[in-house]
Automatic annotation (TrEMBL):
Signal peptide: none annotated. Residues 10-108 form the HTH hxlR-type domain. This is Helix-turn-helix transcriptional regulator. It comes from Paenibacillus soyae. Pfam families: HxlR. GO terms for molecular function: DNA binding. Transmembrane segments: none annotated. Keywords: DNA-binding, Transcription, Transcription regulation.
Amino acid sequence: MEQPVKIYHSAVEGTLEVIGGKWKPVIIFHLTFGKKRNTELMQLIPTITQKMLTQHLRELEEEGIVQRTIYNEVPPKVEYELTAYGWSLKELLHMMCRWGDSHIARKYQGKAVIQAGAPPAIPITE
């Protein structure tokens, strides 16, 4: 029997390998609301550096999560959007958002806010 190329101890490891870290889930979450340009993402995530945003967008593009479209214009126009594969993460990210809302409310008991620039929490639908 052939040896596996990589061994995971949980499928969660495989997920985190692609979307793990501080910024990747946030970038993907914002892209679930539609195409975004670099400057839009910087405005939505004001504490990320340009270097980190560019690095994470490239990594997400390499993983097939994000598609970059370059328009032949002057000045150049570049848009980022989720691929069909990237869209498969939508529910996961929106569930994380709802959990985060509950966690913030529980931990800070009304003494923390989510910045107005962030999209509103997605209601739970069952």
